[in-house]
Design a protein that fits this description.
Radius of gyration: 36 Å
Structural class: mainly alpha
Distance between the termini: 65 Å
CATH class of the largest domain: Mainly Alpha
CATH architecture of the largest domain: Up-down Bundle
Largest sheet: none
Strand content: under 5%
Number of helices: 15
Number of domains: 2
Order of helices and strands: HHHHHHHHHHHHHHH
Number of strands: 0
């Protein structure tokens, strides 16, 4: 338990060095009566009384611990869950309206759970399993259902979808995400060779042809040469450009004799035109 667990720098008489001591201490703090709570909230919002805010937070820390314990099955440290819940409690105290006729703890439950939920979704997996509001609702409700049901069969999928008001496909997708696990891209030195053979990095080909950096580089050079070629061809006269294109850039390729007959010159003349054109093209592409 670190100092950040405590709600602000308020010098609260609660130990911060040990989680068990912290939970024991907050459990001994008396719960405020309804009228006293109302008066403190009025002092906070009417005159910005920070001592009133301190007391409202202090006397409700036990409820944060109670709520945080309900999320212990996610494999995250209880101290961190309590810390996030305390943040939610502070937000609730700031927004609490004593004239609405409800107790602070009833109002604060939403804010406490919201902070804990956000912390779990950020830290439960490397890749977030839920991003939209609907996915978050499904994540927490489906996980509770799976603790009771295990793997869901078709009837259970339909029942969960009906209870949560979501399509069955969403239930199946979230169940798949819950069943997955994070995998390291690179081999773990602590694992044996057989297990490391399954990691993604070991599945990539070691040849240069499959190097992503080389593939991107080659594609860039291809685009560069294509641009340069088109620019160089545009500098040739019409006859020379036609000869080069028909001899080397389109199918079927024209022969020297076909072009010679078409332009009324010898095949040797067509070859000379080609050679002169290629010399200019090579110089242009080299720049």
């Amino acid at each position: 338990m670190n100092q950040a667990l405590m709600p602000g720098r308020m010098d609260l008489p609660v130990p911060v060095g040990n989680l068990d001591h912290y939970m024991a201490a907050v459990s001994r703090i008396e719960v405020l009566g309804a009228e006293e709570e109302r008066q403190l909230a009025r002092s906070l919002h009417g005159s910005h009384d920070l001592d009133a805010a301190r007391r409202l937070i202090l006397h409700n820390l036990r409820f944060v611990v109670h709520i945080a314990r309900g999320y212990s099955g996610y494999g995250l440290p209880l101290g961190d869950l309590i810390q996030e819940g305390n943040v939610g409690l502070m937000k609730a105290v700031r927004r609490f309206d004593p004239e609405q006729g409800v107790r602070l703890v009833s109002f604060a439950v939403h804010w406490i759970r919201a902070e804990i939920h956000e912390f779990i979704l950020r830290n439960w997996r490397i890749v977030k399993v839920a991003t939209t509001k609907a996915q978050r609702k499904l994540f927490f409700n489906l996980r509770q259902a799976k603790q009771r049901l295990g793997w869901l069969n078709a009837d259970e999928v339909s029942a969960v979808a009906r209870d949560l008001g979501v399509p069955e496909s969403d239930v199946l997708e979230m169940e798949s995400r819950l069943a997955s696990r994070d995998t390291s891209f690179d081999p773990d030195p602590a694992d044996d060779e057989e297990r490391n053979h399954l990691v993604p990095a070991e599945q990539l080909s070691g040849t240069v042809d499959n190097d992503p950096a080389r593939i991107v580089e080659d594609a860039d050079w291809d685009r560069h040469y294509q641009t340069q070629l088109q620019r160089s061809l545009s500098t040739l006269d019409a006859r020379t450009r036609d000869i080069v294109v028909r001899r080397y850039l389109i199918e079927p390729k024209a022969t020297l004799h076909e072009l010679a007959a078409e332009y009324g010159v010898s095949a040797e003349r067509i070859r000379q035109i080609e050679n002169r054109a290629f010399k200019g093209l090579r110089e242009a592409l080299a720049t």
